[in-house]
Design brief:
The chain contains three helices and five strands. It is of the alpha+beta class and 199 residues long. Among the domains are: 50 residues; 71 residues, no CATH class. Strands 1, 2, 3, 4 and 5 form a five-stranded antiparallel beta sheet that branches.
Length: 199
C-alpha cells in the first residue's frame, strides 16, 4: 500500500470518527463494556456474552456506516501563498543618529560652521538613493474560467483535465476522499482552477 493510499485512508478514518455515526459507535462500544458489569460471570455467563457481542456488533456496523458515508475534503498545498523572494539588490540602511542612544559620558562636540550660522549643529546626512525598481514584464493575462472537479477515481491513478476545452488546468485547489467497495478501498476527486489565456 503506497503512501498516497495511506493518507487517503487516514483522512477518511478521521472524518468518520468525528461524524455523528462515529460518535454513536463510540457510545455503543462504551455501553457494551458497561454491560459486562451488569451480569455476573457465574450466574449468567451465556447472557453476558451474547449481550456483549450484540452491542459490539452494532457498534462496528454503525462505524462502518460512518466510514462509507463521509467524504472529507482537504485543501491542496498548491493553494498556499508563496514566500516573497529575497531582494539582495536592496542596500542595507544604516540607523539614524537620533535612533542610536548616546552614552552619558560621551557628548558630541559642536562643529565650527561658517560665520553667520548658528554653531552647535551637525551637518545633515546625505540622502541615500534607492535603486530603481526592476521592469515589470508584460506577460499575457489569464482569464478565470472557474473551478472544475474531476470524476471519482482510484487513489494513485492518472489525473484527468476537468476544465472546458477553451481553458487549461491550473493549480489544484482541493482533494476529496471516500471509501467504496468491499474490501473497502479509497477513491479521490480533485478540484482544479481553470484559466483561459488571452493573446
Amino acid at each position: 500500500m503506497d503512501k498516497e493510499t495511506l493518507e487517503a485512508l487516514a483522512e477518511v478514518l478521521k472524518a468518520a470518527a468525528a461524524s455523528p455515526y462515529g460518535l454513536a459507535a463510540l457510545v455503543m462500544l462504551l455501553v457494551s463494556v458497561a454491560a459486562l458489569k451488569l451480569f455476573s460471570s457465574k450466574d449468567r455467563p451465556g447472557v453476558r456474552l451474547v449481550v456483549f457481542l450484540v452491542l459490539v456488533g452494532i457498534s462496528v456496523s454503525v462505524f462502518a456506516a460512518a466510514l462509507y458515508s463521509v467524504e472529507p475534503t482537504v485543501p491542496s498545498t498548491d493553494t498556499l501563498p508563496p514566500k516573497p523572494p529575497a531582494r539582495p539588490d536592496l542596500p542595507v540602511l544604516a540607523p539614524k543618529l537620533s535612533d542610536v542612544p548616546a552614552h552619558p559620558a560621551m557628548k558630541p562636540s559642536p562643529i565650527e560652521e561658517a560665520p553667520g550660522k548658528k554653531a552647535g549643529k551637525f551637518p545633515a546626512a546625505p540622502a541615500i538613493e534607492q535603486p530603481a525598481p526592476p521592469p515589470v514584464s508584460h506577460s499575457p493575462r489569464a482569464e478565470d474560467c472557474g473551478r472544475a472537479p474531476t470524476n471519482w477515481a482510484r487513489v494513485g491513478g492518472e489525473v484527468p483535465n476537468p476544465c472546458p476545452a477553451q481553458c487549461v488546468r491550473a493549480a489544484e485547489v482541493t482533494r476529496t476522499y471516500r471509501v467504496v467497495g468491499f474490501p473497502p478501498h479509497p477513491e479521490i476527486r480533485y478540484e482544479f482552477q481553470c484559466l483561459r489565456k488571452q493573446p
